[in-house]
Amino acid sequence: MSKYVLIMDEVDGVSGNEDRGGIQELISLIKRSRIPIICICNDRQHKKIRSLANYCYDLRFHRPTIQQIHAAMLTILQRENVSNIKPETLDEIIKSCNQDIRQTIHSLNLWSIQGGKTNLLAAKMIEKSVNNNPFELCRLSFSSELRNKSIIDKSDIFFYDYQLMPLLIQENYLQCQPHVTNSSNEKRKLTDIEHLKLISQASDSICLGDICSQMIFSRNENWSLLPYQVIYIRKIVKLSELRI
Prior knowledge:
The chain contains 11 helices and 5 strands. It has helices at about 20-30, 45-55, 65-80, 85-95, 100-115, 120-125, 135-140, 150-160, 165-170, 190-215, 225-240, and strands spanning about 5-10, 35-40, 180, 185-190, 240-244. The strands form 2 sheets. A 3-stranded mixed β-sheet has the order 4-3-5, with no helix packed on it. The protein has a two-stranded parallel ribbon with strand order 1-2. Keywords: DNA replication. It holds the Pfam family AAA_lid_RFC1.
């Protein structure tokens, strides 16, 4: 067995003109290498990773549960002589970090520096920009998790991949089940006529967004239209839940 190993981190980030041919070169390196090569990626479904996966042992790691992270963080806090954090506050910090262990440790470090004054509400406000894959972001776009978020937060999903996200929204918006919510947060299903009207409005927004996209990526490259394309895409998602 070799004492050496080559670790290639974030191989799903090999893209663009500057990295053209990078995956093929990595595959060629794997074929002729005499030492183990570990390739790490975040987006397993990326089209470039599919070709690389044919030459690798596919080992997938699942996100740890809140309970698992909670136990590990308690061990760290105990060794650092920090004992004044409430269990519910710790859980909220873990949730806000999207169960990212490294980000959770960093947040707890800040919490400790502040003298442990972070309350439950403040813990809920801790945010982390998560590097999700486009399919997860598409699901998130149609979920109720973004209901109370600002337009800027919602637009961040679009800018994750402003070429792919509109296509995913267009492919999945017909599967959305819209409903109406009144001031008392009571929901009711839409009638067939109401549903068809919403589909019509969403389709119009898709067309307008596509026009913006064509003008953006045309020979003139009118990038000033990109924020307007965001609005059209967000309007489609907003139609999945109306308030009266």
